[in-house]
Structures are given as C-alpha cells and as structure tokens.
Specification:
The structure is a single chain. The protein is α/β, with parallel strands linked by helices and 425 residues long. 29% of the residues lie in helices and 17% in strands. The chain has 14 helices and 17 strands. The strands form five sheets. Strands 3, 4, 8, 12 and 13 form a five-stranded parallel beta sheet that branches. The protein is globular. The two termini are 37 Å apart. Bound molecules: zinc ion. Zinc ion binds next to loops.
Length: 425
C-alpha cells in the first residue's frame, strides 16, 4: 500500500506548478523572470510518471534518532502522545501584505503580489483554520534524520513523530523573508526588529508614511502571537523555517556585498547591518524559527551552470550561512529542481548541493509529496502554496487545500485586484 501511495504521490508531484517566484525589481538578472501566470490546473499532465516498481519504499522501520526532539508516546502533562507515520503537510508563504492599498494599487508589481502573496488578514484566517482543523506545528528538521546504514553509508530516514493524540503535523516555511527593496513601497514590512517588549516585531511605514512598529503586520510576529494565544498549536516550540536569499541581505538588513563596486564606506555600513541583524537572528532561533537557503541570487537550479551554482552557494554560505548558522534545508527558487527540473535525477548539481550539507530539498507542488532518495543521502519534498493563484483556483484547486481551509472563506476580494476567480465561474 505504501508503494502504491508513493507512486501516486510521485506522479502527482510531476504536475508541477507555479514556483516560488516572488516578484522583484532591480534584482540580479536571474531574478528578472516575471511571475509565471500558469494556474496549477493548467500544468501539463505527467508524461513520464515512473512505473510503480521504480519507486522504492521508504526505509523501515522508522527510527527515532533524538528522543529529546520529540517526546515518546505516552501521557505527559495530561496529553497523550501517539505515534504518527503519515504525511507531514507543508505550507509555504511569502511575506504577507500589511497594506493592500499599497500592494494592489495597480502598479507593475500588483498582479505579481496578488498571485504570490496573501494579506495579513488572510494569513491570520489560514492560521486559525489549520489550528481549528487539528494541525500542530513541527520543525522540518525533526521530520527526517540522517543515519548511517549497515553498509556504512549515510542515508535519510523519516522519523516517527509523537504528536498529541488526534493531531496532524504541519511544517510552515516562509520564502524570501529578506524584505526586498521593491517591497518597501508595496505594503510590506520593511524589516524585523525587536520591540520594546523584547519580542520580534516588524518595522515599516503605513500609507501615510508614518513609521509603524507592530506584531500584526508581518507573517513572523503574527505567528508568534498566534502561538502565544494558542500554545497547543506548537507543542514542541516549532514555528517555521525562513527561506533566505542573500542578494539584498536578510530579514530587512542589507548584509550583502556587491562585486561590481565595493568601498570601505560600503563595507562599514554592511558591518553595521550585520551587527544589527545578529540579535534578531538569535531571538528568532530562541523562539522556534529556523533557517534554510533559497540560494544567494534566487537562481534557477535546473538550468544554471554548475560553476555558477557553486559560486552562488559559496556566496550564500559566506554572507548568509555565516550569520544564521549551518542548515540542511534548501528551498528551490521558482520551485525549479536541479539538473533539468527532473525530481528523479541525481545529477551533478544535486550532488554538489548535497556535498555542501543540504539534505532536505524543497520544491513546490500540489501536495506535500516527499521522497527519500536511495542513491544519495537526501530527501526531496514538495510544499503547497496558499496565495492568490490557489485562492482564486478552480474547484479542483480548492480541493487540494480543503483539508487546511476553505479558500472561499479566506480570500479577501474586497482588497485584491478585480481578476478572475476560477471557483466562481
Ligand atoms: Zn523565492
């Protein structure tokens, strides 16, 4: 049964969709790709789904490698923890829109933001809905672990999760939490800061140009606040994994270099930004947030040369990894898989990225597909994407998300651009 399920999921994931293509202006050349407009249901059907026998079952039995990460089964503090070996759902978001009137003002970015983002209010409704439906947050790093097999070779295993009885695990990730320059005038938070209460907040400006420090305008403090109000949503303290590029710094701090020109004054400014972001990183880590790579330049891993990917990866490690620490998580820009965008391929780019410490490789899809590779120590997985494209999707698309929320109750058509809503037609 598991083999069949694997094959089915594998086939489904080939119906690849919109990728993580946060619109960006004035970025490196590879960023210039316009947001793809293809709606999920328009994607080509799988042409080359693997025969069932080519999909090996996941290793069994599952191993619990670090019992301190997840509690064992049994009753603790009045809560019964039960083993869970099912699918771990995974949703990802881009930064959320704090001020729809700035985001959806009809400028060149408006439709891209409509496609790939949700508003802060929509995001709050999604959190409430997944909470109401019995999901609890888990850390992506706790779902799979690396072990050494009997043959002496390392490989990944899926851990058994012990969850409060009846609950379902959910990973959240947040792409491009860099607060790019183009976002500043488009209704997003400008940066994360530590507020007067010592908690992570966002800093930005409202449509009148007034400075605003808030915990209600950005996905990260909104989730922090939600967990404070609903602590059982995060039984192990997990929040989400922040997927960072490097070309405009991280978390709203301009920590990047520029190879075209670099002066002592620029470097001094950069060092100031580095010192300013350090306490933000430390507080995020302390409160359950983790970090992954989204490549330095938001590059296409399916088509770029190995040499340029090596240079990009080194730059990410130098400028971002040096600040956030080691990570085993890589989120593909545009959802594009290495070596020609074929998930079954373990080509030179994939092998190189794995050699740099990455073990969990995340794309984008129509379900939370995951697959432990058997020819290299790595796991690949897909994430669903609550955003305008899927909130506006057909009945079929709404069905993919129906276990999390009813898109018709989430989407705020009073603030979004007047564009097609497929489930209405
Ligand atoms: Zn992205």
């Amino acid at each position: 049964m598991r083999r069949l399920l694997c094959a089915l999921l594998a086939a489904l994931t080939l119906i690849s969709l919109t990728a993580c293509s946060a619109p960006a202006a004035g970025d490196p050349p590879e960023e210039a790709d316009p947001p793809q407009d293809a709606a999920p249901e328009e994607a080509d059907p799988p042409q080359d789904a693997a025969p069932e026998e080519e999909i090996p079952p996941e290793p069994e039995p599952y191993a619990i490698l670090d019992p301190t990460v997840m509690p064992e089964g049994g009753v603790r503090d009045g809560v019964t923890y039960a083993a869970y070996d099912g699918i771990v759902e995974h949703l990802f978001f881009h930064p959320v829109v704090a001020y729809p009137e700035l985001a959806f003002d009809g400028d060149a970015q408006a439709n891209g933001i409509d496609d790939y983002m949700v508003t802060a209010d929509e995001y709050r409704k999604i959190l409430q809905s997944v909470y109401d439906r019995g999901f609890v947050l888990v850390d992506i790093a706790d779902v799979w672990s690396e072990v050494t097999g009997e043959d002496g070779q390392p490989h990944m295993v899926r851990n058994t999760l012990y969850l409060p009885e009846g609950k379902k695990p959910l990973i959240l990730s947040f792409d491009d939490t860099n607060y790019y320059e183009y976002m500043l005038a488009n209704g997003f938070a400008w940066k994360l800061i530590i507020g007067e209460d010592g908690k992570i907040a966002s800093y930005g400006k409202d449509p009148q140009g007034q400075e605003v420090i808030s915990r209600d305008e950005d996905a990260i403090p909104i989730l922090d606040k939600f967990v404070e109000e609903h602590p059982d949503f995060s039984p192990f303290g997990a929040k989400g994994c922040l997927s960072l590029t490097g070309y405009e710094g991280i978390l709203g701090y301009r920590t990047q270099t520029d190879t075209r020109s670099w002066t002592d004054a620029q470097e001094a400014e950069r060092q100031k930004e580095i010192e300013a972001v350090k306490p933000i990183i430390a507080e995020l880590k302390r409160t359950g947030w983790t970090f992954g790579s989204h490549t330095w330049g938001h590059i296409r891993l399916g088509t770029k040369s190995l040499e340029s990917i090596q240079a990009d990866t080194q730059r990410w490690l130098d400028e971002v990894g040096s600040l956030v620490g080691p990570t085993a998580i890589l989120f593909y820009p545009h959802g594009e898989r290495p070596d020609g965008n074929d998930w079954q391929n373990t080509g030179p780019v994939f092998r190189y990225l794995q050699s740099q410490g990455f073990r969990v490789f995340c794309s984008v899809g129509i379900n939370s597909f995951s697959y432990i590779k058997n020819d290299i120590c790595a796991v690949i997985c897909d994430r669903l994407h609550p955003d305008g494209t899927t909130l506006r999707g057909s009945e079929k698309v709404l069905g993919w998300y129906s276990q999390f929320y009813d898109a018709r109750e989430i989407i705020d058509l009073t603030v979004r651009p007047q564009r097609e809503v497929r489930w209405m037609t």
